[in-house]
Amino acid sequence: MNTFTTKSTPLLGRSNSSDNLHDLSDSSSKSTLSSGSQENKIAVKKELTQLENFAVSALAPSMAVLFTNPFDTVKVRLQLQGEFVKTREPGRNGKEVVRVSEKVYKSSLDCLQKTFRHEGIRGLQKGLFPAILKESSKNIFRLGLYDPILNAMHPLSYPGEASTAPAWKRMIAGATCGAMGAISANPFELIKTRLQSHSTGGLAVGNQYAYTGTFSALRTIIVNDGAMTLYRGSVISIARSMLGSAANLTTYSLLKDHARNNWGAEDGIMLDMVSSLVSAFVSVVVMNPMDVV
User: Fold this and answer.
1) CATH number of the domain that 53 lies in?
2) Which of 26, 35, 38, 276 maximizes the CB count within 10 A of its CB?
3) How far apart are CA 156 and CA 114, in angstroms?
4) Which of 20, 40, 39 lies closest to 28, judged by CA?
């Protein structure tokens, strides 16, 4: 019985050795390429372009302020209230008598409840639009330029590397970004604070401004007081932002890079959240005295 063998029909079901070697080499090369590509995918982290970095830096705080603005309104009203509420009343001899009454708001929770009871959610969200403008304009500089400035001061060995920059370089980069952000955001900060302080009746504390909205406030301030009024308090605002940004960004980047370099932590949402929470606490402690001023 004659049996014909071809490459497609191996003799007695046995594969041709050369074909096997060829197939094995092909499969091994493919597996090597695929494993190499997987390693590349793992090792190389896609870096955002500078335009994307600016966009994300503006968008993320703008979304966050939707949740934080009610607490900011409470903070503003408590700070304006001071320790006591002083009223001047006519006395018996025609002289004014200063009377010190109890505080309108006894605590943060009391302020939150009273504002919601008398003004609703719109009262707690006063100044929301200028708050969004403030956060986006400030963080384009504060967050968007932090990495480029730090990398210029302390270059990375390869893209996506966890920086090894010392704390003092991070503080300089953070303070620089904070100063630029404060200058751009100061007009919106002024308008936001005045809108948040406005209330009616017995809940009104501090100076009251009868603005109907952001553009009404902007127009009234420029016409009545001049454009430079928008930068009133900018010196303390710049100092506040420099200290706060230096503390916030330094703590955040140090903790995150230390966790990646020394604890084997993976760069992801959980590491970002933990680093953000710790750095936020530090920055609040540093900034609050200047917030009061």
Assistant:
1) 1.50.40.10
2) 276
3) 52
4) 20
Q: Is residue 211 part of a domain?
A: yes
| pLDDT (0 to 100) of residue 41 | 42
Instruction: Say what the pLDDT of residue 2 is.
Output: 42
Using alpha carbons only, give the angle 260, 63, 113 rounded to the nearest 5 degrees: 115
Among the residues of 143-233, which ranges form H helices?
Answer: 146-153, 167-197, 214-225
Expressed as residue numbers, the domain containing 274 is 48-66+124-292
Q: Is residue 15 part of a domain?
A: no
- How confident is the model over 62-103, as pLDDT tens digits? 888 999 999 999 999 888 886 555 556 666 666 666 565 567
Integer Cα distance of 118 and 204 in angstroms:
11
Average pLDDT over residues 105-132: 92
Backbone angles phi, psi at 27, to 5 degrees: -65, -40
Q: Tell which residue, 151, 180, 157, has the closest CA to residue 245.
A: 180
In tens, the pLDDT along 127-154 reads 999 999 998 888 888 888 888 899 899 9
Regarding pTM above 0.70, the answer is: no
Q: What is the tally of helices (H) and strands (E) in the chain?
A: 9, 2
Asked if the structure places residue 54 within a domain, the reply is yes
**Mean pLDDT for all residues in the chain:** 79
Q: Retrieve residue 100's tokens.
A: 């010190």
- Spatial neighbors of 161 by CB under 8 A, at least 6 apart, are none
Residue 286, class by beta-carbon neighbours within 10 Å (0-12 exposed, 13-18 middle, 19+ buried)?
middle
Number of domains in the chain: 1
Q: What is the largest CA-CA distance in the chain?
A: 138
Return d(Cα 85, Cα 99) in angstroms, integer: 8
Handedness of CA 185, 186, 191, 193 (dihedral sign): positive
In a domain, 133, yes or no: yes
Average pLDDT, integer, range 109-124? 92
